[in-house]
Write a structure and sequence with these properties.
65 residues; Helicase, Ruva Protein, domain 3; 63% helix
Length: 65
Amino acid sequence: MLHGITQEESDKRRKAMQRVVRLNQSEGLQPTERLLALIDRYVSGEIEFDEVGNTIRSWPPTVTA
């Protein structure tokens, strides 16, 4: 379901986010389910890009061993 954006805009957003995820994966980083859900909200138009960034910055850092 789209929230106030066109299918064309949603497709652009999806392609851009796929590029970002692939770039991070090429550096050994895997997206979390939480991040993928946030991306889905952006792609559908539920939230805007600035809210994606603000939300991610509000998350505590993840430490892996």
